[in-house]
Amino acid sequence: MKNKLLRQIEKLYQRRHINNLLRRGVFRNNKRLSFLLSIIVGFISVTLIAIYLTGRVTSVANTQTTSTIKAYTLPEKNTHTASNTDTYTTSAANTYTFPDQDTYTPTATDTYTLATTNAYKTSWIGNSFGGGNKWVQIQVTDMYVTPDGTVYTNTDWDEAGREVGIYKNGDVIGKADDLHGWGRMGGDAIAVDQKYMYVGMQQSADGKPGEDYPPKGTTWYCIRRYNLSGKVAPFPQGRGWDKSMLIVSTKGKIAGLAIDGQQLYASDKAANLVHVYNTATMKEIRSFKVNNPSKIALDKQGNLWIIQDKNKIGHYSPTGKQLPGAITDVAQPSAIAIDNQNRLLVADNGPRQQVLIYDIASKPKQVGTFGTQGGVYSGKRGEIGDLKFYGLSGVGTDAAGNIYVSNVGFNRSGVDLRKLSPSGKLQWQLLGLQFIDTADADVGTDGANVFTKDEHFIMDYSKGSGKEWQYKAYTVDRFRYPNDARLHTTPTAAFVRRLQGKRLLYLSSEMMSERLLMYRFDGEIAVPCGIFGKGKEDWLANEPTNSSWIWIDANGDGSPQANEYQATGEKDDSVWGWDIDSKGDVWLAAEAGYIKHYRFGGLNAHGCPVYNTKAVQKTAMPQPFKTLTRIRYFPEQDAMYLSGYTSDRPNIDGDWGLVGTEIIRYDNWSKAKKIRWRIALPYEVKRDPKLHIKAMDVAANRVFAVSSKTADVFVYDATTGKQVQQLKPGPEVAGESGWIDIPFGIRAFRRSNGEYLVFVEEDLKAKVLMYRLPG
């Protein structure tokens, strides 16, 4: 067969390629060349036999292949652009078939790489865009809409530098430059005229010597001027390294901005002042007293409406005279704007979760609302709907009367930016939902439902990359469950489990893995029902303060009471390892060198999982570990996966919060604890950036480990411990990812069709990466 293949290869390449070169006269009458070409043909023949025996070949342009790839040089393609769909295989007659071979001129410098059935593709969840130049920022604290429908947003921080985002027609069209680094951040206010945008921002003492920065220990709270494309626009007497900043305060942020002709109004909440500046010169014209000023809107008469305190909107003349008609019937005004009919729009971020519409021609009178009363908590609580708002942070209108709202959830959940017609029809929606977060699939639905710490997504895996997900629900209920830890802390990773037929959500809390949170579901709402905690929590009362503890919700109200706590009697410090196995048992791996096993005691009358501190089993750290950092247990196999540092591979530079240097599988864990294999994880601390592992997970027959600073996912066979693959962000997400910051920044799930889903934290551009690997 090999000889037959060799003859066919020789015929194919001598006829199509070598003779083609000779016909062109490139090497005619060159005997040395004939000898050289014979050698080349022989080499090509042997190479192609190796490829044939392996099976499948993919173009080098498809980088989504195994880490053990070998390169093969073939005289193929020149003008043809390789793609992920190019395949080169042998036919039944043992001859090679090259798709597109008639559409380009062959060359001898083309490289092809060996691929296997482990080819994968990259996708993502939670952002309207995959990355590169386009992503929706992670938060919006203020928004300004121009008459033509261009939306300008501002926030303190966006991981990738879109503190000020510019959007139009459902697309990302730009951002403001230079608000990320050298002590600079965005802020809480933005306003735009026909020439400039004026951005509330912060500048701290973190700059280059000799340039204009505040002294150490001082922060400037500034208005920075930009042109409408996002480039800084310096002005005479401007401050900062580029002379584009106007210092308003050193005490607190600018809370609101508004423009009327050549006058720019700025709320200085710390000083209880509103400053008025000339937009051409940026010099102060005057200022006047306003108690606790925040967002500002200017009506068509030039008068100011200013949010003050929790439920008051004051009414002022341009010179600061208090006018009659203050509005005091809004539960929690968070943003205001004037529409094309000179009506005042007020975003009420209280229980109504609506935009309230006021006729302000004389005495303010509410004449309408926009959005469904109760917002996301109307109808089926938590379910997303076009007119169901949640966490309103901005409102605006264009010349046609379309209404724009920014929803950010509660406690910085993410961005949901919408444009709606005056009648309430959704025109477009942009999402940037995930930050310091990852996802997990619901085994009870074979991965058709995926959850992050705050969101529920419905999946359709028949669709292309980035299109598989649909935003189904926001699972936090701020008003019914005000003691939900998600409103007071920053959970970072979801574990979805099915216990006694019920879906439960467990969350690792904080980047330091401080606690484990437990939730039951009431429809789409994840109801707080338990916490593995330690010591004092600022948002709670009556919890044990000198030891670790467990809270189980006994009365179903989602809020801890004193009689619902169980103290453990000791404080579990530095716990980086949590796991909830398929039976519901909770496992804790402490850096101090022990494992705790809390057995699942069933669900109580309200559907909360029950655990008992008196029934805990404590086990010493097994050999050869010196430090334990992660834990994963599979009761069906009695297989335990532990990670950390060993004597053979210690923690060289003292980094904390990492997986460690080894993952070890123990078989027959409950009795013999026999080591099956040891994986020596990538660990290069002298490299820049360092190569070390931040998170791990196990699904079916694969172990997944993701590096912290390079976001490489290393894939191992769970039976042998051998590496079988390496995953990197593909072209679908511009080949990029931020650092993996959280201890449980990777989740893996195997669907019933064999496909692996691997979810990885990607907080650079407000999403979760999803790798899809064939089974």
Distance between the termini: 31 Å
Low-confidence stretches: 1-106, 112-117
Shape: globular
CATH class of the largest domain: Mainly Beta
Helix content: under 10%
SS element count, helices: 2
Task: Output the radius of gyration.
Answer: 31 Å
Strand order across the biggest sheet? 35-36-37-38-39-40
CATH fold-level label of the largest domain: Methylamine Dehydrogenase, Chain H
Strand composition percent: 35-45%
The helix/strand class is: mainly beta
Structure description:
It is a single chain. 45% of the residues are buried. Helix content is 6%, strand content 40%. The longest helix is centred in the N-terminal third of the chain and has 24 residues. By secondary structure, the chain is mainly beta. The two termini are 31 Å apart. α1 packs across α2. GO terms for molecular function: zinc ion binding. This is NHL repeat containing protein.
Briefly summarize what is shown.
With 775 residues, the chain is mainly beta.
